[in-house]
Amino acid sequence: MQSSKFTNVAKWEKRSKIFGSSPKGVLLKSFPDVFNEYIHNWQLKKILSEIAPYSGEINIIDIGCGYGRISLPLSERFSEANITGFDISKNSFELFQKNTGKNAFVGFAEDFNLQSDYYDYIICITVLMYIVKDKIEKTISSFLRHLKKGGKILLIEPIHSGIYFQTCFGLLNLPCKFKKAAALNTGGNSFQYHFLQSLIHKSGGKIIREYRLPATTLFFLVIYIFTKIFTSGRRVLFNLIFRFDEYLKFIRLPSIYILKLYKNSDYGIIF
Fold it and tell me: Which one of 45, 197, 250, 259 is most buried, by most CB atoms within 10 A?
């Protein structure tokens, strides 16, 4: 298990060095930049909407921070916020510090245990998917222990219902048969909706809200083909898809990602 753990670190290190401060280093590496930009904007908008606009001096930790994709715009929006990065890749750690000017730590999310730090917001984007399943509950519990009273955890993970659409029913996995693609494959799992729901509750968390990307998921193949073939009209397409996603965001339809917002159940409030 340890060997597999450190093999994955090596793959993330290599991926970080190849892509640097590009969304392909942490999002969909074989997709057009405009597609990754759309996914990034959706994630960022949802995270920004959950942080009080006049927060003042707050503590935020970005677990799986990468090069600072989320933390950089957060630091620009919330200038008084204390933002910390946390990642398994040393190269990402260095990029994060260079890009954001913020402090960061190198480590495994399942070993997350900063003795004296408590956070108003813990951001965790596509991190649990790389952790062995029997360690995820412990990991979530550790996050909750580092959360201030009234704080929020913003968790984004892939959902199994959307995987078939994301891979276009296996078609987009074909490039991974080539050596270069396989070498950069960092793996990862998707979650059954009820499994993730149950883990959060068992860990002591209470879910407040969740957001989905149903339109993006259901029309994934169409979007992929369109963005590969056409260079014009992409923005119009994504604006249209975004509107549909906003309309359907709370409906339990297949989704490539789900954003779950939760708190410690001792003082969490369900909306």
Answer: 259
User: What are the structure tokens assigned to 46, written together?
Assistant: 């949802």
* Integer Cα distance of 224 and 217 in angstroms: 11
Q: Give the largest CA-CA distance in the chain.
A: 52
At residue 112 the predicted structure's pLDDT band, cuts being 50, 70 and 90, is confident
The structural domains of the chain, with segments of one domain joined by +, span 2-264
Structure tokens at 28: 């969909």
For 10, 35, 126, 167, the CA distances from 31, given in Å and listed in that order, are 22, 6, 17, 11
- Which has the closest alpha carbon to 76: 106, 50, 99, 49? 99
pLDDT interval class at 95 (50, 70, 90): very high
CB atoms within 10 A of CB 152: 23
Domain 2-264, what fold? Answer: Rossmann fold (3.40.50)
Measured distance CA(6)–CA(9) in Å, rounded: 5
Tell me the H-state helices in the chain. Answer: 2-19, 33-49, 71-77, 90-100, 136-145, 160-166, 179-183, 193-202, 214-218, 220-229, 234-248
